[in-house]
Amino acid sequence: AEIADRLPLVWLHMAECTGCSESLLRSATPSIDSLIFDYISLEYHETIMAAAGWQAEQNLHNAMQKYKGRYILMVEGGIPHAESDYFLTIGAHGKTGQESAQEACADAAAIFAIGSCSSFGGVQAAYPNPTNATALSNITNKTVINVPGCPPSESNIVGTLLHFILYGTLPALDVYNRPKWAYGLRIHDACERRGRFDAGEFVEQFGDEGAKNGYCLYKVGCKGPYTFNNCSKQKFNQGTSWPVQAGHGCMGCSEPDFWDKMGIVHEP
Ligand code: SF4
Ligand code: SF4
Ligand code: F3S
């Protein structure tokens, strides 16, 4: 497709680990190459763009001017904000992450928070949150679509983007502004070990006979019953596997404040 036909995308990195970008790069349908050559024009993405330094900042500035009101904004990472915003200071101009994100939000056609960091604050917002990191939705008045997960699967990131490209509208959302098509069901609802749960067959301790036999991981901390996401159906890495298949319970990574709230082991 011609560049003019492709949707301009600006991807900003705030306080984060780049796991969400890594997930994006594993897109299978379409592949990341096809996504970039046929559907979007990736104007700015610090991990994979060729430009560096002043040139990179100039590219970002130019893209936001040229596609004012038309570009899609995706933000990865929590945002140290208010009087602590200087904890994230980026680039030669010494702008804070909060300033960059607010500027980019102002002229974006649609805004997506990719990952639990930008959706809800994430790991750096966990207690005691020394940098005062917060969700993207707390630093802009515009609507933010949250695509949480630590990281979210490539299919949830790309699916959300393609929905906007194909329909030109925002998807139906749940109470946390997550797209319902991806976050409408609990992990527990479609888990391959659900039969074990219903039969009362539980792993009591990692490495025991139950673990070897694929029993339910609830007693060793699985948070699947409290977590809304589609991992059990979509999986990760092009459908290769997902946490429970790999033998570890869900830790609720697509729920707000999961670092602080999901640490408790419940008894069934
Ligand atoms: Fe990394 Fe998780 Fe934050 Fe994504 S949501 S940037 S994977 S810590
Ligand atoms: Fe539910 Fe977790 Fe057990 Fe799967 S492993 S059935 S999600 S409690
Ligand atoms: Fe996260 Fe649980 Fe899926 S930990 S990756 S929501 S299985």
Structural write-up:
Keywords: 3Fe-4S, 4Fe-4S, Iron, Iron-sulfur, Metal-binding, Oxidoreductase, Signal. Residues 17-163 form the NADH:ubiquinone oxidoreductase-like 20kDa subunit domain. By secondary structure, this protein is α/β, with parallel strands linked by helices. It has two domains: 3-183, Rossmann fold (3-Layer(aba) Sandwich), CATH 3.40.50; 187-261, Cytochrome-c3 hydrogenase, C-terminal domain (Cytochrome-c3 Hydrogenase, Chain A, domain 2). The chain has eleven helices and nine strands. The protein has helices at 19-24, 32-39, 53-66, 97-106, 116-120, 154-167, 180-183, 194-198, 209-212, 231-234, 258-261; strands at 7-13, 40-44, 72-76, 79-80, 89-90, 95-96, 110-114, 133-134, 145-147. A five-stranded parallel beta sheet has the order 2-1-3-7-9, with helices on both faces. The chain has a two-stranded antiparallel ribbon with strand order 4-8. The protein has a two-stranded antiparallel sheet with strand order 5-6. A hairpin with a 4-residue loop joins β5 (89-90) and β6 (95-96). It is globular and about 60 Å long. 42% of the residues are buried. The model has no long low-confidence stretch (mean pLDDT 94). The structure holds iron/sulfur cluster (2 copies) and FE3-S4 cluster (F3S). FE3-S4 cluster binds at residues 149, 187, 227, 229, 231, 242-243, 250-254.
